[in-house]
Amino acid sequence: MANENGVLIFAETTDGALAPITPELLAAARRLAGSLGQPACAALVGSGVASLAQEAIAFGADKVFVADDAQLAGYTTDAYVSAMEQVCREANPAAVILGQTDIGRDLAPVLAFRLGTTVAMDCVELDVQDGKVAMTRPCYGGAARAVHTSNTMPQMATVRPKSNDPLVKDASRQGEVATVSVSLDPSALRTKLLQTKKVEAAGIRLEDAEVVVTGGRGIGGTEGFQVLEELASVLGGAVGATRAACDMGWRPVADQIGLTGKVVGPTLYIAVALSGASQHMAGCTGSKNIIAVNKDPEAIIFNYARLGIVGDYRQVMPALLEAVKKIRA
Amino acid sequence: MPLNMIVCVKQVPDPEAPPSSFQVNEADKKVVPAAGVQPVISQFDAIAVEAALRIRDAAGEGKITLISMGPAGARDVIKHGLAMGADEGVLLSDAAFEDGDSYTTALVLTTAIKKLGDVDVVLCGRQAVDWDMGVTGSAMAEMLGLPAATIARQVEHKDGKLVVERVLADGYQTVEVPIPCLVTVSNEMGEPRYPKLQQIMAAARKQVTVWAASDLGLDASQVGKKGVRLNLDRLFIPVQESKCEFVEGETPEEAATALAQKLREAKLI
Predict the structure, then answer these.
(1) Eight-class DSSP state of B197
(2) Where are the CATH 3.40.50.620 domain residues in chain A?
(3) Whole-structure pTM value
(4) CATH code of the domain covering residue B26
(5) Minimal CA–CA distance to B152: which of B118, B119, B188, B181?
(6) CB–CB of A118 and B103 under 8 A?
(7) Which one of A32-46, A249-263, A275-289 scores highest in mean pLDDT?
């Protein structure tokens, strides 16, 4: 392939609508496309998704490639990589961007190697330097940052959720829609999806919460989280946990915030009895305000916090709960 | 039919080392090894060994071969896996392999796998805890022409296939993958077993095969720094700019009340 042109994003959909990551990817694509002087495009892959093309255009796409097929109804690696391969053959993009989501982290590496290129994962910054896409990502558990460029085409990256603000939706935006008729060879679809089980979050989803109260190793046990739950409840927020707390069995795995857990960006993040290790911070540095409570004055979390109390959470948190209740009464 | 399993393991700087000891040499684009801190097996890779052992335990049979690409000292992570219960180990070591990327790593590992002969299941950690990239496993699957099931929390060998539970953001997904295949594992699978002293001593006596680039028929230009698809242009420690205001009081309760006040003043509650 030569004369690659355009920044193509993988437009994720959920329950018949564009997934939250998609407008974020379009914003990133618009910015890169602007610097490159090329179009921003979207690959809309799924079943019954064609009607979402206009919305993708409203969020910034100049052209939408629609790959609509019944076999693309639920995500499987083989079907989606085959569809994307066919879209890329038609679109011939200079860059392909996906979200660092359940689908993106599975699809991007396979797609990259199917296309004979490579991919930089979980990028927090993408920009253009000397005509190439420079990809900045955290590494070493978040303690360091690496900047990469790709020697092979298309240049590929996955983008961390909430690291790009969506553009304001403009329903009057014009764009092109192209249908890609995908051919999916059933014998090439090797994996069978048996079931998908949603574990219902009691209350507000961590990723959506404006207030998150997180407990770490210092909580010491399941009961210790009680006061965090009460505070979260009063503030209308959600309770998170570090990997240590989840591995100990004190909190369900779904509550885990960190590099291999959920990534959150609330207005208020209250970090209780957690050290602030890089792997955890990777999941919460998007927070607008971090408040920390820790027995150890040297705890790394205080390097990230705006306000902090050095003290035992068992004494501080119940008092904080009461004080907050009074103020909000 | 006993499964022939290969587990890829990587030696990495210890992520539990004191954060203050983490340093980067920006000119060399490398992490400076922390003085006196021993490197360790990447924790998701130890879990991959555990996954293989669980499959073997359930079947009562199965062969587990470990492979690692790294410096001579990476022999230690192979020994750790052998002590956990794996059967054999191969170290892929060559100066030419250094400073590569996911592509060159996958190329070296898959060349070794092909040299080892027929494999039923390749297991890896979901990402190495140094680069956190999470690409090598899937790249290997593509190079070997195998289906990949990633981010597994459970793997079962059933009726000639693997039934894999994959972790999702808000739940999990069960997939059935034909054999041969590749699986990457996540921490939700559980703690890897810790070897007993006897097993560690027995593993210390075992031979680890060592292969260089020439043993794999690979040229220096294909691997390591010379073969990368992804360039590393810069490596740095991001500057922490924020300053924390410590809220104090005569008692923890007083400090807590003062904090609540400040949060109200900042319009955060």
Answers:
(1) H
(2) 7-188
(3) 0.90
(4) 3.40.50.620
(5) B188
(6) yes
(7) A32-46
